[in-house]
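Quick review question:
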């Protein structure tokens, strides 16, 4: 059967995670003919509950596997008629990368190389690498990252994401691969693993437990609601040009302490829950994204303002306490205790 844009098969690596699962939902909903193969190793961050609402869709299939394991990747491509690859699969938490960089090198760098090689063999028409603004390093008080800002990663997570980006650009240049990169600002929304700042604050504050704020809370991040990111990634698949980099940003910049106050106010919880703890080593000061390229070329614009996005996120966490309980298994608890009781991080441990 000849393939049109409407009946392509998309391999989504890392589709059981926070953003990948949102993207799968978005594509199946927006594109009535597109099929999705979700290829995910199911690490601590991967959760098939995130895909529950699509699992009976006849255009959706899940395959468990590791992007860094040659036989797994060969297996998922074999006879599957994959047209498009979107790679969300990664080790994603900066603090864990500071503890141990090895899994980050393996998945983020070796895994990307392995996926690229198999995508080439399969002759896919598009490969989209999901990257991050963290590869650019840290900004001063003003300015924003553009696509040609030099790479200057400051932590092992960012360094491995930058390494992966360079492999993707080399693949496009050397092999003429139809591969491109998106770099997005900090995401928030439903189903984000509660080691990241926003869901950690929500999960803790809802149980009246302290909110750990690193340093003095003045580090700044730019935030995007996850639905806006997913729409941008699908635009990248359809409108992106090979060998190019595209920034995606939500335009909502805040200091961490302002965000903590906003979340507490929205939850009706007291600011006394905020607890300043030891700073993250090498903590990037400020991220901000210039995404005028995709606004101009794709007509993309963020649609969800901060107030609405945070409210929707809070509503979701409020109504899904069993999801939070489920992901806080023993390995998460031991990470949390190790990380936050380290040095002067003296937060009360999990009950
Ligand atoms: P996540 O940690 O929620 O999910 C990662 C997913 O990848 C999980 O389902 C996990 O099981 C899977 N995975 C990990 N190692 C794998 C392997 N070896 N093989 C196959 N699957 C594997 O991450 P997320 O927040 O959804 O991030 C998705 C992507 O977006 C990542 O590449 C990340 O670098 C990028 N990104 C994230 C943000 C953010 O704010 N969360 C911002 C910009 C870019
Ligand atoms: P995080 O969600 O880990 O994303 P990233 O490091 O990729 O930006 O952190 C967002 C910001 O919040 C970052 O400046 C670090 C800070 N932070 C805290 O203050 N306390 C915490 O417990 C965590 C996890 C993060």
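Suggested answer, residue by residue:
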């Amino acid at each position: 059967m000849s393939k049109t844009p409407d009946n392509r098969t998309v391999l989504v690596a890392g589709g059981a995670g926070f953003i990948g699962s949102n993207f799968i939902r978005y594509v199946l909903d927006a594109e009535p003919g597109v099929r999705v193969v979700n290829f995910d190793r199911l690490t601590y961050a991967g959760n098939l509950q995130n895909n529950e609402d699509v699992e009976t869709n006849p255009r959706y299939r899940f395959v468990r596997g590791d992007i860094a394991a040659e036989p797994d990747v060969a297996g998922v491509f074999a006879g599957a008629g994959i047209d498009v690859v979107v790679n969300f699969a990664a080790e994603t938490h900066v603090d864990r990368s500071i503890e141990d960089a090895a899994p980050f090198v393996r998945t983020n760098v070796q895994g990307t190389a392995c996926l690229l090689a198999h995508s080439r063999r399969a002759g896919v028409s598009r490969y989209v690498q999901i990257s991050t603004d963290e590869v650019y390093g840290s900004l001063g008080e003003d300015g924003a990252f553009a696509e040609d800002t030099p790479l200057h990663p400051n932590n092992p997570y960012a360094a491995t994401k930058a390494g992966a980006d360079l492999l993707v650009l080399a693949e496009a240049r050397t092999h003429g691969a139809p591969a491109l990169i998106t770099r997005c600002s900090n995401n928030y929304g439903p189903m984000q693993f509660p080691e990241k700042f926003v869901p950690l604050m929500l999960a803790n504050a809802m149980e009246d437990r302290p909110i750990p704020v690193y340093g003095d809370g003045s580090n700044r991040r730019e935030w995007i609601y996850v639905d806006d990111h997913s729409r941008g990634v699908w635009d990248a698949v359809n409108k992106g040009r090979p060998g190019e980099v595209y920034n995606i940003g939500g335009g909502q910049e805040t200091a961490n302490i302002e965000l903590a106050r906003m979340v507490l106010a929205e939850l009706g919880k007291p600011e006394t829950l905020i607890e300043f703890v030891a700073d993250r080593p090498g903590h990037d000061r400020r991220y901000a994204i210039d995404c005028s390229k995709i606004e101009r070329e794709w007509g993309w614009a963020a649609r969800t303002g901060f107030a609405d996005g945070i409210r929707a996120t809070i509503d979701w966490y409020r109504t899904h306490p069993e999801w939070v309980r489920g992901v806080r298994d023993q390995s998460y608890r031991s990470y949390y205790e190790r990380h936050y009781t380290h040095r002067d991080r003296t937060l009360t441990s999990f009950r």
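Why it works: The radius of gyration is 19 Å. The longest helix spans residues 102-122.
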